[in-house]
Amino acid sequence: MSFETTNYRPTPLPDRREMSDAAMIEAARVHFDAMATRHSVREFCDRPVPREVIETAIATAGRAPSGANQQPWHFVAISDPDMKSRIRAAAEEEERAFYGGGAPDEWIAALEPIGTGASKPHLEVAPWLIVVFAQRWGTRSDGSRYKHYYVPESVGLATGFLIGALHLSGLSVLTHTPSPMKFLTELCDRPVAEKPVMILAVGHPAGDATVPAAALNKKPLEEILTVIGAQTETT
């Protein structure tokens, strides 16, 4: 997509949904109930996942809002066993350095209830890995660069869309952020303009999959919400 034409041209809203207050509340509750069943797992089974599911979920991610509509993201979906093995080997090398003294004690202590460690077998077992890249700048047809705005915020929004789409498709997702992760740029053959942000391991949970008990503790609504102004309650 080219962003060389910058003139503003309004167009009528192409999609509009009209719902009653009661229907909106019901829809919000249904969506919450569905998303409340999302859990990060580290044990996957080898059941294949159709490529179309991954492609459609990434297409959904591409519908996320972004700064200046520049869509500064790229996703690399990997099912090739050899590539997954190479990513695991490189990630575990970084993780061993992290857990072996590279991370502050406070950070390690914060991770202890989650049960993480340097071993990352899910990077090979999960049928798909999706590497999320943030595009720091764009390139015009003449080769000149233009700056992207609100890149971390935009990529975060798109990744949230992606995780939600994958979950609603019946899949489990584990976010993995090896540090540093520059090795992903080379392995995935991406340009220097793109910075790897995270790896998503995607697939069906193993029959004996577990989650950390601490991960089930979510902040209640009153701790994450402040309402300012009038509010209408519908019963």
Q: Give the averaged pLDDT, no decimals.
A: 94
Uncertain residue ranges: none
Structural class: alpha+beta
**Could you estimate the helical fraction of the residues in percent?**
25-40%
Helix count? 8
Whole-number total of structural domains: 1
Q: In angstroms, what separates the terminal alpha carbons?
A: 46 Å
- What's the CATH H-level superfamily name? NADH Oxidase
What CATH first level would be assigned?
Alpha Beta
Give the strand order of the largest sheet, numbering strands 1, 2, ... along the chain.
1-2-6-5
Radius of gyration: 20 Å
What is the fold named in CATH at topology level?
NADH Oxidase
Shape: globular
Reading the helices and strands in chain order gives HHEHHHEEEHEHEH
Strand content: 5-15%
> How can the largest sheet be summarized?
4 strands, antiparallel
**CATH architecture descriptor name:** 3-Layer(aba) Sandwich
What's the count of strands?
6
Oligomer: single chain
Organism: Limimaricola soesokkakensis
GO molecular function: oxidoreductase activity
Pfam families: Nitroreductase
Protein name: Dihydropteridine reductase
